[in-house]
Amino acid sequence: MFKTNQGATQNYWVKPLTFATPFLYGESLTSWLVRAALKHGCSPLTFTYYYWPQYRIWTYDADKGFNHFDEQIISDIAVLTGHNVDTFDDQILIDFSKDTSVVLDKKTPLQWTAPLSKRNRYSRLGYPYCPDCMEDDKEAYLKLQWRFTWSVCCAKHKTFLQVDCGHCNQPYQPQLLSPEQQFINRCHACYDKLDQAISGIKPSETLYEFQKLADQAFFSKQGIVLGQVVSMCQWFEYLLFLINLIRRGLKNPNYMFGKLIAALGIDTTTLSLPKTALRFDYLPVDERTVLLECAYHLLQVDTDNWIKVCLDLDITQNSFQWSKSTITPKAFSDVYDQLHRVPTRRYEVQSEDIKPASPEVVMASWNRLKRKMQMRENYDKHKKS
After folding, report:
1. Residue 39 resides in a domain
2. Are residues 49 and 173 in the same domain?
3. Which of 68, 127, 260, 380 is the most exposed place for a label (fewest CB within 10 A)?
4. What are phi and psi of 228, to 5 degrees?
């Protein structure tokens, strides 16, 4: 952590903005930069180029912060907003990455963070927002909390977050807004207000309770797993383990993990796998919702029940090593240590004959291709506009 000496800043000419634009609690850096630019009658691109011409700010994910390549930028923003630099410590994604020991760089998306998939200034995936929060022009702003992939609904309005415009279905791109649009709650493509919900479905009470639990773990930096208090890092590590376990169970409901999650109370007959088979952070809100509701149910299962069901199904320690990169979370050790371990088997080298992929793999590849085609189509529309 560093302090800002506003009297001796490197960019000594940086002064508080002419039209005060306070940095709101819980606001993302993207939101503040866009609001400040529009309030001063210029585009976000012009605003950032004026203060930091040596960087192409909007080719990066601004919500990560800028400390990983130039700490002076945050010092300058502190002067512009009239806040102390400490204000930004828990308002950027870099703070979460430090607590979860995630390695940061300029381009790589962070775990548990909704990626923007930048191509120059253009984001191929829209910025998450709540349509109800976008109704009031002057009060509208974007919350950093919406960037986390466990956040699928607005805590205030209990409305699902969305990433596309409800009028033209183009990805929401606040960094591409023009000064004529004046407020951040506008679509850069069709200029309409972003107050129309794409879906009329409301989040379930289970999902809302889960999100409150996850937010509590995030803000308090600790959570409870199997009756034990663990660090925030271990809590989210366990949550991801449960999500991957559910995905493996849904892939083959009649196999070991399918039987396991069914025995723990999840009805696998009414659920389906994500169409694209992408990693959790890249899934759309509706697919993440299904996995999070199931994970919340498994979070309520106690140690004794876990051990009993695993032993009844002859599940061993080896069963949880479903890939070479799999790491059993430390928070799960009370269950894992009570299971048998089978000596590692040695397999002969498999034949190099080409084998056809399964229908499930083919369909997942096809859905990923359709996703890319849609992203490309949106980008082409943006270039022509």
Report:
1. yes
2. yes
3. 380
4. -115, 140
- Are residues 166 and 232 located together in one domain of the fold? no
Average pLDDT for runs of 10 along the chain of length 385:
44 79 92 95 94 91 85 88 78 71 58 88 92 94 95 93 94 95 94 91 93 93 94 94 94 92 93 88 94 96 96 93 84 94 68 72 81 78 72
Angle at 116 between CA 114 and CA 117, to 5 degrees: 125
* Of residues 75, 62, 65, 69, the one with CA closest to residue 123: 62
What is the span of the domain harbouring residue 33?
29-181
Q: Of 115, 120, 116, 122, which is closest to residue 56 (Cα–Cα)?
A: 120
For the chain, what is the domain count? 2
Task: Please name which of 270, 271, 290 lies closest in space to residue 280, comparing C-alpha atoms.
Answer: 290
Is there a single domain that holds both residue 223 and residue 274? yes
Q: Residue 321: inside a domain, yes or no?
A: yes
User: Residue 129 in contact with residue 161, Cβ under 8 Å?
Assistant: yes
User: Could you tell me how many residues make up the chain?
Assistant: 385
Longest CA–CA span in the chain (Å) reads 72
Identify whether 284 is part of a domain: yes
125 lies in the same domain as 232: no
Scored b (16 or more CB within 10 A) or e, 285-296 reads bebbbbbbbbbb
Task: Tell me the one-letter amino acid at 181.
Answer: Q
Domain membership of residue 322 (yes or no) is yes
Cα 271 from Cα 274, distance rounded (Å): 10
Query: Within 13 Å, how many C-alpha atoms sit on residue 55's CB side?
Result: 17
Residue (of 331, 332, 340) closest to 312 by Cα position: 340
Name, in order, each residue with C-beta under 8 angstroms of 256's C-beta and a sequence gap of 6 or more.
313, 315, 319
